Amino acid sequence: MKHPSTSRQRGVFTVITAIGAVLLVVILGFVVDGSRLMVIQAELQNATDACALAAAAELNGLTGATYRAAAAGSQVGGALNKKNFQAVSVDISPTTDITFSTSLNGTYFAASASSTNYKFVQCTATHNGWINVFMGLVGLADDVPVASSKAGLQQTSKVCVLPLAWSGASLRVANLETSLSSKTASQYSDLITGGGSCGISTDKRIVSVDLTNSLNTTLTSALTSRYNNDPSFGTGVGRSSRRFLAVPSVDASAKISSWVCLELGAGGSITYRGDINGPTVPFPNNNTCIASGIAGTGAIGPFTPVLVR
Questions:
Q1: Could you give the CA distance from residue 286 to residue 296 in angstroms, rounded to a whole number?
Q2: DSSP 124-137
Q3: Residues 15 and 135 in one domain
């Protein structure tokens, strides 16, 4: 009885070993390079999401809105985010990587002073210089990681606002959470000069309003401080979002009927800019007062930036 030669068996094992080594490199490549690619892709996506939200928050329809939006998006999404395993900052150019459109699926344009009607923003980020360390050994191309995000504006069901209400064509201190007596004048002052309270429902409901103007001195002082402490944007309309106040409008029973947009001026002065849900478009449109919040279907609250793609 004849047996296969030992040398022939060694030759078969050599071929199998060679094929197995190639397959091992391919599998290792998919694991290592694929994992690297997923991490960098996630970093870029986080950056473009932040960019789009920050930029959309500046789309208040006023002159120079897209310039401010592009600057905010580039700073928040780019300079404050890192890529390549948090090694370097993400590069998001305000002139080429941030674009605007009047509709979600419309044509997107770079920031300009020619239009103030943009409602959507798109941010794009890439990671140039990507190299497939292992997959390149088997001839797979070096794909450039790219991320893109779009954001727009929607009305809120819950919002972050100052403890204020518009009553009888006057601005008054209001507790939009519980009862008026639960906070001191100092606490109201801190909220008005700061960021206010979050999680406030925008539904039509009864709230506590200082109808007797007992806190009027506190209100005037706090509004004056808010204006004076604002960054130096000059006195032009719409140069700072801190000067636009979205507040609930209440009826004689202190029930929220709608939300209005007010502009804060020097000395705590207030200019009415329109009803966010009114039949007449307020100055210059119904998203002039943009707030932070949670969007909701059928909500009546002020507009907030949301990711749409």
A1: 17
A2: EEE-TT---TTGGG
A3: yes
**What pLDDT, in 10s, does the model give residues 104-120?**
999 999 998 777 788 89
Range of the domain at 210: 157-307
Is 91 found in the same domain as 117? yes
The reply to whether 112 and 137 lie within a common domain is yes
The pTM assigned to this predicted structure is: 0.81
Does residue 149 fall inside a structural domain? no
> Per the domain annotation, does 85 fall within a domain?
yes
Whole-angstrom CA distances from 147 to 87, 93, 102, 122, 220 are: 18, 14, 22, 11, 46
Burial environment of residue 163 by CB neighbours within 10 A (0 to 12, 13 to 18, 19 or more): buried
Say what the pLDDT of residue 293 is: 94
pLDDT for position 22: 74
- Indicate the residue type of 187: Q
pLDDT value of position 20: 80
Write down which residue in 99, 119, 144 finishes a domain.
144
- Rounded Cα gap, residues 184 and 117, in angstroms: 42
> E strands within 37-145?
82-83, 88-89, 98-101, 109-110, 120-126
